[in-house]
Amino acid sequence: MCRFILLLGIAALSLTPALPASAQTPPSEAEYAAYTGLHAAAARGDVAGIRALLGERADPNRRDAAGRTPLHVAAFRSQYDALRALVAGGGDINAQENDRYDVITIAAVKDDVRMVRLAVELGGNAKAITSRYDGTALIAAAHLGHHGVVDALIAAGAPLNHVNNLGWTALIEAVVLGDGGPRHTATVKSLVAAGADKTIGDGSGVTPLMHAQRRGYAAMVELLK
């Protein structure tokens, strides 16, 4: 009976591949419509408005009900110049909202390479532990097969072998939560080339290679041998 319950749990986990990254919650259209001040200006990309409000001593780190600062809003909306203006005005590029996502991880999930690079340029920490999964932006990007973001984060010094509270590294997530297609395969290739440890297994000791073999992901298997 216990073995059946365990297998059922494993099966259920395999049916929820989008969970770790999908926990991120962007503002709803109603929230965008209700924003005022710097949050509203950030959403519009209104750099002149941001500078005017900062000149009037508006708080660049003020939070909405979900803990999002104007910088988070700018990241969700891909407002690059707004992000620069907010950081110049004292905005904390490494602030995390209530679900513990920072600008870099928001951009990683959006597959916004330009925003990732800009956030790093402005002092963003690619090594930060983020999300309710105690993960990293690199793990989130690897999960989704955002290989361009993965390359940018590797270049920024993101930790290759961090293990989140699911027991998975970026390499494991690229295999277990990927589809074995070109984007996830390119992600695995980048991680391996950068020196990610292929021997780190999941909580049951199953390595990335073993996961790839079980799924029949031939291209990944060759990379992981």
Description:
- The chain is built from 15 helices and no strands.
- It has 225 residues and is mainly alpha-helical.
- Helix content is 56%, strand content 0%.
Features of this protein?
225 residues, mainly alpha, elongated
Shape: elongated
Helix content: 55-70%
The counted number of beta strands is 0
User: How many strands, which pairing sense, and closed or not: the largest β-sheet?
Assistant: none
Terminus-to-terminus distance: 36 Å
Number of helices, where a helix is a run of at least 4 consecutive DSSP H or I residues: 15
Low-confidence spans: pLDDT under 50, at least 5 residues?
1-20
> Which structural class do you get from the secondary structure elements?
mainly alpha
Instruction: Please state the average pLDDT score.
Output: 92
Strand content: under 5%
Quaternary structure state of the chains depicted:
single chain
Secondary-structure topology with pairs:
Elements lengths: L1 H13 L4 H4 L6 H6 L2 H8 L2 H9 L14 H7 L3 H9 L14 H8 L2 H9 L15 H8 L2 H9 L14 H7 L5 H13 L13 H8 L2 H7 L1
